[in-house]
Amino acid sequence: MTSIINWNELRKAMISEGRRRRGRENPADHWDKRAEEFNRSTKERNERTDWQVASMRLDPDYTVLDVGAGTGRLSVPMAKIVKHVTSIDQSGGMLSYLEVNMAEGGLSNYQCIQKRWEDVELGVDIELHDVVIASHSLGMFDLQEAVAKMNAAAKRRVYIFTSAGKWFFDDLEEELWERVYDRPPRRGGGFRSDYMLLYNILHDMGIYANVEIRDAEHVQRYGSLDEAVERWKTMREIPEENEPLLKDYLAKNLTEDGDGLIFRRRTKGAMIWWTKSESS
Description:
Rossmann fold, 8-stranded mixed beta sheet
């Protein structure tokens, strides 16, 4: 039966507006500028990282492909368990921090490939891996094509971690978005990254995936309000002239914690996974 809604085309329409607003900026450059702050912030997500790694039931003989690996939040702990990890990211800045984090862990059983996932050629750039994962890294324009390549690259299982409902930039930050950028929150809200959109795309592809929803708490720590302002400006491209608005927003939403401040949000995350025998 033909699907009434083409979920992949719907998602393309949802993300097109944001891409027009960003103009011609190279996505790799975008993440290069944020690599230092991203590396710092992801090191604070130990509970979520531990859950994700444990949930994948990795075997010491496995090879794992991490798509959109960033600074290695998952690649590094996985390399401590499995035979080999291949980390792919379009940002050289991100991968440079990943290599530092691997070295700090005394790890050498990994390979970094700086490429967009859309440009990776199976059998040329990479071989098949036992497990393929992607954690909050599905920014590709054609999601169906990207996921089909992940499925083709996996010998055993695929794991995708994404949001369930609104994610970080769609809840408390709606107020900030409206004030700083003088426009309503992005069209489509959290549904653009919600697990149901991806699940529907997979279903139309004949992949009947498993889903697990889990509560998660995201905590960011800062030594002072000024530190928080500087770090948020970097990650969210907030212009200098709007710094007072940002400072006012953070002053209202940060809470004291010992000698510093924290920004705390509760979210729901989804793990979507399937075995190759279930994908056909």
